[in-house]
Amino acid sequence: MSRESIYKRYELINMPQKETSADAYWFIFKDHEMLVEANHNQVDIPFTSNLKSLGISPLRTQYLGKLEGRPCFSAEVTPGTCPPEGMIFKDLRLLYDDLEEDIYLLAGRAVQIVNWDSSHQFCGKCGSPTQTMDDQTAKICPECGFTSHTRLSPAVITAIIKDDKLLMAQHAHGPENRYGLIAGFVEAGETLEEAVKRETAEEVGLEVKNIKYFGSQPWPYPNSLMIGFTAHYASGEIKVDGNEITDAQWFSKDEIPLPPSKMSIASALIEWYKKV
Ligand SMILES: [Zn+2]
């Protein structure tokens, strides 16, 4: 999670390439489902110079940069679009195990760009149609000059340790009997460390200390950036809010309940705890 770059083969380029007729990788979304080619042992994304040959007529396309020197585009299609033969639309979350990591991460960037492009066609201030800027991932209003960048919602997630135990909580809206780490969105005007303290106090009534940065992870469901921390218990008794959190307990290393999906930073934090 604390890698300097998450990509090995991808280069983010902001200068839009409007020419879409070269051989290119296509990240094509129908809502949160992505078009993939399902072969016997592996899943690929479409690589083509001609989307029309696949029977795909996108509503909008966006240039993403280069993967191994080849252009990459994202595209949005209408809800009624049928997949070409041999391909399926599949929920991005369900593709984690099937796609190469670079492709999966890039798909997460792609779906956020697609959603942002779709929801920023008009100026949020004056309602005029927007234009995509040439030198950055942003839209500008030609009437009033208002600029919108891709929207990210930062959220903190914390592994809190007391003696040799890890705090895990059951979220009201999560799966039954699934325990996770304390997490929540960062508020305007707050530092990340303050968000860690506030979320911990709000959700389980505890004070924490020794807050340390662990790593971060893009979380495109729909547009979060998860920022992981470790911390130690400082004071207080567990008191859940009963609303967002229904139960919280200290778990020893051999008591830790089912880990969340291995693709999440939560699972990396739990792995870290198991090793300390
Ligand atoms: Zn405007």
Question: What would you note in describing this structure?
Answer:
With 276 residues, this protein is an alpha+beta fold. The chain has three domains: 10-119, Alpha-Beta Complex (Nucleoside Triphosphate Pyrophosphohydrolase); 121-150, no CATH class; 153-275, Nucleoside Triphosphate Pyrophosphohydrolase (Alpha-Beta Complex). The chain is built from three helices and 18 strands. The strands form three sheets. Strands 1, 2, 3, 4, 5, 6, 7 and 8 form an eight-stranded mixed beta sheet that branches. The protein is globular. It starts with 9 loop residues before the first strand and ends with a helix. The model has no long low-confidence stretch (mean pLDDT 90). Bound molecules: zinc ion. Zinc ion (ZN) binds next to loops.
Query: What is the CATH superfamily classification of the largest domain?
Result: Nucleoside Triphosphate Pyrophosphohydrolase
CA-to-CA gap between the ends? 17 Å
- The overall pLDDT, averaged over residues, is 90
How does the helix and strand content classify structurally?
alpha+beta
* Quantity of strands, as a count: 18
Please write the string of helix (H) and strand (E) elements: EEEEEEEEHEEEEEEEHEEEH
CATH architecture of the largest domain: Alpha-Beta Complex
